[in-house]
Amino acid sequence: MLIIGVVGFKLTMNLSWVDALYMTVITITTVGYREIGEPTENAKLFTIFLILFSVVIVGYAVSAITEYLLSRNNLKDIRERRKLKYLESMENHIIVCGYGRNGKQAIQKLQDYNKEFIIIEKDQQVIEDSGLDDDFFFRGNANEDEVLIKAGIERASTLITALPEDADNLFVVLSARQLNKGLKIISRASEENSYKKLKLAGADNVILPDTIGGQHMASLIVSPDLIEFWDNLSYGGDEGVNLEQISFEQMFDGKRECNIIDLDLRQETGCTIIGYKSPDGEYTVNPDPKTVLIPGSKIIVVGNSKQIQKLQDVYRINNEVT
């Protein structure tokens, strides 16, 4: 603003640099000392513009500085207000409760897919040691409804609760389901007897990490080559394997039906269809090419990173959670 004023007065009133600076300062500060020389019409118009412009800018600057001076000993409140304002702007995001082993793995995968998420974590030390930006965290106890509401549970698309205790996960699932009936909820469980309880509470999916780990180790004995092949596939590289789920509505704008062979997905994108989900929720592995795709159905495809990217480009898929 100072540069604009100096250059403007220099050109419109043909003043020296010092006089132009003098005119700019008295105009911006609205002090109103004497003018240097007789202003031309252009100079008068420029002065009007500068006064109106400076009133807005200086007013905003004064309010910002005043807020800082009044709150300089309470910067935590300022960050908290900014965090709440940021959370209020989030929609269809993912809420992750707990940043333990499972929570960390979930976040890494979400970052790979550029998902918008917020982590609820009550331990400040865990937040500081995470290596992530503070903007990704909301400090609080996920068992409290107020914390879930502030994290945007009512506008979120998915909730992942990965707390170490099954009782805490159960409480979060119950609260989340009451706050958002359409929310997709994925819960971690340590004990097998917690599986049914979490499902009854409203969890869409319940993951037992210990069980999965044991099955994986046993599979290394039964079919070691197959499991090692899968483990050695890189999910991040160009040749890495990826799975993608696509709904009928993502593929077709209208209500027309189409069978798998006519879709010709392999030829068009390089991806292979390995599964089909009917509108009733029934899964079919390696579906028949004559299987008809109808509204509400979904297909599961596999391909490397480039093929999946081409698939997303062809069908304008933005990696949304389905």
Count of discrete alpha- or pi-helical segments spanning 4 or more residues:
15
Q: Helix/strand/pairing class, anyone?
A: alpha/beta
Instruction: Report the β-strand fraction as a percent range.
Output: 15-25%
Give the N-terminus to C-terminus distance in angstroms.
50 Å
Residue share in helices? 40-55%
Q: In this structure, how is the largest beta sheet organized? A: 6 strands, parallel
Number of distinct beta strands: 12
Instruction: Detail the poorly predicted runs.
Output: none
Strand order of the largest sheet: 3-2-1-4-5-6
State Rg.
30 Å
* Overall spatial form: elongated
What sequence of helices (H) and strands (E) makes up the elements? HHHHEHEHEHEHEHEHHEHEHHEEEEH
Compute the average pLDDT. 83
Structural features, described:
The structure is a single chain. The protein is an alpha/beta fold. It has helices at about 1-15, 15-30, 40-70, 75-90, 100-110, 125-130, 145-150, 165-180, 195-200, 210-220, 225-230, 250, 260-265, 265-270, 305-315; strands at about 95, 115-120, 135-140, 160, 185-190, 205, 240-245, 260, 270-275, 285, 290-295, 300-305. The strands form 3 sheets. It has a 6-stranded parallel β-sheet, sandwiched between helices. It has a 4-stranded antiparallel β-sheet with strand order 7-12-9-10. Helix 1 crosses helix 2 (about 15-30), helix 8 packs parallel to helix 9 (about 195-200) and helix 10 (about 210-220) crosses helix 11. The relative contact order is 0.07.
